[in-house]
C-alpha cells in the first residue's frame, strides 16, 4: 500500500471484530515504531502490550473512563505507550538541552506512535489513540517504572466499521508561508 493511501485510509476505530490479532503483526507495528526518528537517536518510547482477555477486561474497567471503555470494548489488543524520562532533550550529564526538556520525549513518542498506527493501517488493522485514562492506576496495574512517562493507550484490532473521513482543514488554514 502506498503511504498516501495509508494516510487517507487511517481512521479512529471504535468497533472491532471478534478476531485475534496475530503476534507477528503486533511485532511489525512495534518495529515500525522503532524506526521513527528521535532526539539524538535516544529511542526512548516503550510499548506495554495487553493481549490476555483477563488482563484486557480488568485494564479497561480499572484504567479507562466509561466512554473509552465503550470505545475499545471489543479491542483484542491495548498498547500503553510510554517514554523514558530525562533522556530525550537532555545532555548526558542530565542537564536540559533546551527549554522543552521532557517535551522531546513526548514528541518522540508521538512520532513513533504515528509509525505504529500507520503500519497497523497498512496491515489491515484499526486503531484508536486514547489520552484520557487513569495514569496512576495504569502505572500500578502494569508495574510501569517511575522513570517512564505514560503517554497514551492505543486500541488495536480488525475494524468492524468503516468510518468516513472527518472534514480536514485546508493547507491555507494551517500554514503560513514566508
Automatic annotation (TrEMBL):
The keyword Metal-binding does not apply. Gene3D superfamilies: NADH Oxidase. The lineage of its organism: Bacteria, Bacillati, Bacillota, Erysipelotrichia, Erysipelotrichales. Belongs to the nitroreductase family. Residues 8-158 form the Nitroreductase domain. The keyword Transmembrane does not apply. It comes from Faecalibacillus faecis. GO terms for molecular function: oxidoreductase activity. Keywords: Oxidoreductase. This is Nitroreductase.
Amino acid at each position: 500500500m502506498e503511504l498516501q493511501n495509508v494516510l487517507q485510509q487511517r481512521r479512529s476505530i471504535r468497533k472491532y471484530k471478534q478476531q485475534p490479532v496475530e503476534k507477528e503483526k503486533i511485532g511489525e507495528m512495534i518495529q515500525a515504531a522503532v524506526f521513527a526518528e528521535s532526539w539524538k537517536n535516544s529511542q526512548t518510547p516503550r510499548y506495554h502490550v495487553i493481549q490476555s482477555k483477563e488482563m484486557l477486561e480488568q485494564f479497561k474497567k480499572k484504567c479507562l473512563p466509561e466512554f473509552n471503555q465503550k470505545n475499545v470494548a471489543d479491542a483484542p489488543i491495548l498498547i500503553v505507550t510510554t517514554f523514558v524520562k530525562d533522556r530525550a532533550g537532555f545532555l548526558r550529564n542530565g542537564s536540559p538541552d533546551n527549554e522543552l526538556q521532557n517535551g522531546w520525549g513526548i514528541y518522540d513518542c508521538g512520532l513513533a506512535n504515528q509509525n505504529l498506527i500507520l503500519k497497523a493501517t497498512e496491515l489491515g488493522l484499526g486503531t484508536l489513540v486514547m489520552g484520557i485514562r487513569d495514569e496512576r492506576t495504569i502505572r500500578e496495574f502494569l508495574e510501569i517504572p517511575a522513570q517512564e512517562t505514560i503517554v497514551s493507550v492505543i486500541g488495536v484490532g480488525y475494524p468492524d466499521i468503516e468510518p468516513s473521513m472527518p472534514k480536514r482543514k485546508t493547507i491555507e488554514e494551517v500554514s503560513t508561508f514566508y
